[in-house]
Fold each of these.
Amino acid sequence: MAYETIIVDQVDGIAVITLNRPDALNALNLQLLRELLQALEEADRGEKVRAIIITGSEKAFAAGADITEMADKSFVDVLEEDLFGSEAARFARIRKPIIAAVSGYALGGGCELAMMCDFIIASETAKFGQPEINLGVIAGMGGTQRLTRFVGKAKSMDMHLTGRFMDAAEAERSGLVSRVVPAKKLMEEARGAAMKIAEKSTIVAAAAKESVNRAYETTMAEGLLFERRLFHSMFATEDQKEGMAAFREKREAQFRDR
Ligand code: HXC
């Protein structure tokens, strides 16, 4: 499939999707979002892909939704097309682990896209922000909900109301990103994390992802029950037998996704 706004590269079971609209700092227009979703769905279906990385350029992961494309839309336009609604829903259905490798600006929809991934690895140059208030709108792809859950109400309110940016150190301190590395090491670190995931059983990785995500959707008691039932179901897999046998035999497990 030929894409115009993203580059897809697949090596050793890792699909790397690079946002590629350099002239607009990877602003998310509908074409880019649709190409991204198509690439993600293809990677999710692809038997060889075991983990996915989404990244941008050194200067920008993505500087937000494309303001030029949105500026003249009316309320009825965005309501009728349910702007970004179907894209967000399709993203949420991807079952393979997705890492966001963020360098430079991750603003507005760019910050929201990074937060939709399963975890974020940031370079020291990363800047996160929800500056939509400066444009006379609010976040529309999860920013008010996800950022608040990640960093808490105080910092989320601060960012949504003042539009200020958060640097990588603050983002790590606040729980928005899992690791911060020097800019030159970003892709090496992200690939390393993806390779670690790729060694695991895809069935078990998908279950872990589903269960962690459940924490954001339900009560503690229901979440614990959901986790326990999924945990129980792992005992129906060959990979559980292999993983525990390998431990007892003091060797590396060879998972077969069965
Ligand atoms: C369209 C954008 C853009 C955007 C940057 N560009 N961000 N185009 N939509 N979100 C374009 C600029 O117009 C410019 O094009 C080129 O990219 C380079 O940007 P500059 O501003 O010249 O770069 P710089 O001075 O380095 O400033 C970088 C920046 C600034 C601080 C990131 O570009 C900026 O503030 N961008 C907007 C950030 C933002 O408000 N994001 C939220 C968008 S709303 P030209 O042609 O002039 O060279 C949103 C709503 C989400 O995301 C709702 C749900 C998804």
Note: The pocket of hexanoyl-coenzyme A is lined by residues 24-25, 27, 63-68, 84, 105, 107-109, 112, 131-132, 135, 139-141 (CB under 6 Å).
Amino acid sequence: MYNLLKGKKGIIFGALNEQSIAWKVAERAHEEGAEFVLTNAPIALRMGQLNALAEKTGSQVIAADATSLEDITALVEQSMEILGGKIDFVLHSIGMSVNVRKKIHYTDSNYDFTAKGWDISALSFHKVMNVLYNKKAMSEWGSIVALTYMAAQRVFPDYNDMADNKAYLESIARSFGYFFGRDHKVRVNTISQSPTPTTAGSGVKGFDGFIEYAEKMSPLGNASALECADYTISMFSDLTKKVTMQNLFHDGGFSNMGVSDPVMEKFE
Ligand code: NAI
């Protein structure tokens, strides 16, 4: 370990179970010397195993529905009290589509479900940054990261309305990143991760074929949740101070591929 986050304070959204990308980020942040608050939706806290992670990393858990400005405000205020000052890093690792859950086809969207999924998966990122910005809760040279997927740029038919949510999420990172950079010297980025076997990931129809295809297409193979955590830690560290408003692909090279030899072999 490199003490990359020694003395840094953070808030980590979205650790549900050991598979969660946010779970791995919390473990790695702890190893790198950070202190942080863990948060998730109240229902996830009832279902999940977050207390075990809190114990392991010496963290407190605060329930917050990321679509509620009231909850986020209380979360940020309490986090600053617990951690004793401003926040250096924030991970937004939240995604959910009701249309996907209910197996409703993209061409037949239920728009109440679309709106709910958009609020949770995309607009919540704006709400979190709104509170952090207006409360001046972030330290100078702080870093905010949200997780995204390449369906924001290219079509993956079964990714459904999450593709649109991710496009919106990535746009918020750019738009808010301008104001956060200009006014508070805080950077805002999205990390576009390979398909990863988690609760959210496995909910996508045909996930097994999908992850296998990405593995065969990527010269370095798919990036794991732990590798995603490592990259996220580097984005929270002082080694990446001038990286902002970017969508950063962390996918073993997948996003620049046309076709690979192992995939071609299947057609020859
Ligand atoms: P996960 O299922 O472990 O995490 C999703 C989290 O969102 C859960 O902890 C859940 O409780 C939380 N959440 C849902 N509604 C919420 C609400 N209203 N308020 C607060 N939190 C809420 O799955 P995973 O894969 O770790 O997902 C984390 C992020 O990574 C998501 O943004 C996902 O889209 C993204 N991602 C995942 C990939 C994958 O293949 N698993 C690939 C690329 C990006």
Note: The first strand starts at residue 9 and ends at 13.
